[in-house]
Amino acid sequence: MQVRNFLDNDDVKVIAEQGAFKVIEWQRDLSVGYSDAVAAYFASEMNVRRRQLVCTLNGQNGVTTQAGAMQWTMGNVQATTGVKGVGDFVGKLARGAVTGESAVKPEYVGQGTLVLEPTWKHVLLLDSVQHMGGGMVVNDGFFYACDSTIKHKAVPVSRPSAMIAGGEGLFNLGLQGAGVVALESPVPMSEIVVVDLENDELKVDGNFAIAWTPGLQFTVERSGKSLLGSAASGEGLVNVYRGVGRVLLTPTAA
User: Fold this and answer.
1) What are phi and psi of 134, to 5 degrees?
2) CB atoms within 10 A of CB 3
3) In angstroms, rounded to a whole number, what is the distance separating the alpha carbons of residues 142 and 211?
4) Which parts of 178-245 fold into alpha helices (H)?
5) Distance (Å, rounded) from C-alpha 157 to C-alpha 81?
6) Are strands 151-156 and 21-26 parallel, antiparallel or unpaired?
7) pLDDT surpasses 90 at 184
8) E-assigned strands of the chain?
9) Rounded to the nearest 10 degrees, how much is the dihedral formed by the CA atoms of 144, 219, 133, 97?
């Protein structure tokens, strides 16, 4: 089986590659009409382009994706639920209910190619061990795909009484194990701010953190020690990360 006019298209550029994953970027959008041509031109000049994740399956590995992300597959590729039994299914339902992520994420196995739907966001490829020490907690809406060797779990937020006012949920998606994780991001990897904490704390006003290491304590707190202090600072509730670990921040809110 052969595929033509895809990776060999002169409008397609491979911008990142790690493990089973390639991120491709369409350099021009030639499908726009006359009335949209000017907007499409300036969007391309500002690096606003369609990107896709291409996954290679070799018969021994598997890829887990966000539900509904698949565009097409080629070869002997099957979609499974990744459910290992009744208990695992119940656990996935519970985790999906509390994290806001899809309860059962499809797992693709076999030998061939899996291509995910285009996105206008940037796609970050993170080695779980190299970049995040073997695991990470992912903020809502950023998970895109990962190697199926990586386990998923729900990670509770400390001090949940403040989570509603702080715009956070009670739980985030935790990823644990060796492998590559693909995240959707409003900015490219070159603009990601990496903060390494050594028994310190980081306070973030807004939804700027896309992922952090699970050893950190994540809470939602008032920006000041008192209501009056919070009012004086002009801020309300902030997201606080304490301990030893790493936080990945975007310079713009997601």
Assistant:
1) 105, 0
2) 11
3) 9
4) 227-233
5) 27
6) unpaired
7) yes
8) 12-18, 21-26, 51-65, 70-80, 107-116, 122-127, 135-138, 143-147, 151-156, 171-176, 180-185, 193-204, 209-212, 217-222, 237-249
9) -40
Residues pairing with 143 in the sheet: 183
Asked if 219 and 168 count as a contact pair (C-beta separation under 8 A), the reply is no
Q: Count of CB atoms within 10 A of residue 186's CB?
A: 16
Q: How far apart, in whole angstroms, are the C-alpha atoms of residue 212 and residue 233?
A: 26
Q: How far apart are CA 238 and CA 172, in angstroms?
A: 16
Query: How many CB atoms lie under 10 A from the CB of residue 31?
Result: 9
Q: Is there a contact between 178 and 129 (Cβ–Cβ < 8 Å)? A: yes
How far apart, in whole angstroms, are the C-alpha atoms of residue 177 and residue 180? 9
Measured in residues, the chain has a length of: 254
Reported as type and span, the H/E element at residue 89 is helix 86-99
Residue 90 has pLDDT above 50, yes or no: no
Can you give the pTM of this predicted structure? 0.84
How deeply is 35 buried, as exposed, middle or buried, from its count of CB atoms within 10 A (0-12, 13-18, 19+)? Answer: exposed
For tokens 């795909």, name the residue.
145
Residue 83 pLDDT:
53
Which residues fall within 8 angstroms of residue 148, CB to CB, at 6 or more apart? 61, 62, 63, 64, 82, 107, 109, 179
What secondary structure letter does DSSP report for 210?
E
**Tokens 């206008």 -> residue:** 120
Name the average pLDDT for the chain: 86
